[in-house]
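Input record (one chain):
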Amino acid sequence: MGLNELESQILIDIYEADMLPGMSFEIENYKLTEKDPKNKNQEFAFYLGKLKRLGFVKYEEKEAFLKAGIASTKYNNNVAMICEDKIHIDSKGIHLVEWYYHGNSETQRQLSIYV
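The corresponding structure, as predicted from the sequence alone:
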């Protein structure tokens, strides 16, 4: 299963936020399909959930997400706010991002990250 371009960028940004002092990642930095802020949070949480299921990131759901209201049927969550500082790269994610960064060719860096 491959990661799409957005998921790959989120993973790289989480890596940089954990590894480089002063770096952070924020939902506002991504071109999400949703326009409504609540729906954007649910969409972003959906992508983070996929990265967690694949073992690339780690977080405690109760710390990373504030939930409220009815769950979205599209994104299968009711996340109202995301605490980006509670989301971290896991060892599998570190391995993948470092492979991506330190690839032998520019072509490899331009490819989507694959699981």
